[in-house]
Write a structure and sequence with these properties.
By secondary structure, this protein is an alpha+beta fold. The chain has helices spanning about 5-20, 50-55, 80-85, 90-95; strands at about 1-5, 25-30, 40-45, 75. The protein has a four-stranded antiparallel β-sheet with strand order 1-2-3-4. The chain is globular.
Length: about 100
Amino acid sequence: MAFGINREELSQWKAAVNRGEIAYLTHYWFDPRFPNFNTVTKVGCSDMQRLSEWCIANDLPPKYIHNRNPFPHFDLIGPKQKEILQQEQLWSQLKRFGMMK
């Protein structure tokens, strides 16, 4: 379940994904399978080849892409989430969700 984002942010992410861009959307999240993590970043792109290449370039296994039409995405959690948000200079997402430590 997602928390901490608004409809406009979600709409902007969906539009970018539909355009074939690599788009990042971080939100609060609860999943009992991952009790130590409270945020997730969805890295989406409607171009599956591009999203697979993004995964490989970031040492992530493309087999974990959620191929859900119309918004395929890879879920980032934990240290790799913070690393990639820093790499992409998404400072507002890092700050907003308490990952600037």
